[in-house]
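Entry for the shared binder. Reason: the reviewer on the internal report wants the predicted structure included alongside the sequence.
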Amino acid sequence: MSRDSTRRRKVYEGKAKVLFEGPEPGTLIQYFKDDATAFNNQKQGVITGKGVLNNRISEFLMERLASIGIPTHFVRRLNMREQLVREVEIIPIEVVIRNVVAGSLAKRFGIEEGEALPRSIVEYYYKSDELEDPLVTEEHIAAFAWASYQEIDEMLNLALRINDYLSGLFMGAGLRLIDFKVEFGRHWDEDEMQIILADEISPDSCRLWDVLTNEKLDKDRFRRDLGRVEEGYQEVARRLGILPDAGPRDLKGPEAVQ
C-alpha cells in the first residue's frame, strides 16, 4: 500500500478493497488489494497483481455502463490501484444474475455446470460474513427494511440492463458471462436520492468462461485450485483491450471439482 494511503483516514476495509476518505466531501478513494478469499473467507490467499488488474477492468466496465445511462459511483482512476468514487450508503444486498448453471446453483439443485438457463435468474443475498451471505427474498429485504420495494425494483431493472449489456460486451471478447454479482448504494445530491451501481465489476465478481473451450478466467481458478490465477485475470484484461498481449492465452489446467 502506498505511503500516502497510510496517512489517510480509513473508512472501511473489506476482503478485496479498502475505502479511504476522499479529497472532497462526498467522495472516497477505493484501493484494490491483491488479497483473495473464497467460501465466505474460509479460503484465503494472495493473487499477485489482482488489485491492479481489477482496478483497470472495473474502470473500463463502469465507464462503458455509464455510457449507456447506468448511474455508477465511479468518478475516475487515480493510479494503478486506486480510483475516486462517489460516497454512497451501501444497500446490504448482493444482486446475483445467473445466465448459465455454475457454482452454488449447480450444487443446490444437482444440475451439471455449463447448462444454459432458459432465462436469466436473479437472486438476492444478504451481505453478512457472520451469516455466510444467506439467500433472501424480496419479502425479507422489505420486511427488514434493507430496501423498499421501489428500491428493489430499481436494483432489479439496473441489474438486468447491466446483464444485457455486459453479456454482449464480453461475447465480443470471446467470453461467456456465466453469472455475476453487483451491489448498489443510495447516493444523495442535495435532497435527491438515486440508486447507483457501486463496489466493482471484475473477475472477482463475475464468472467468465472462454466461449470455445469453457476455460475459466475468473476467481474460480483460485477457488478450485486450477492454477495460473494471475494469467486468467490478465487474459480478461487483454481481451478487453486494457492490457494488449498481457499474459499467456493457453490456460489449460486441471478441471478440479468443487
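Summary line for the report: The longest helix spans residues 149-172.
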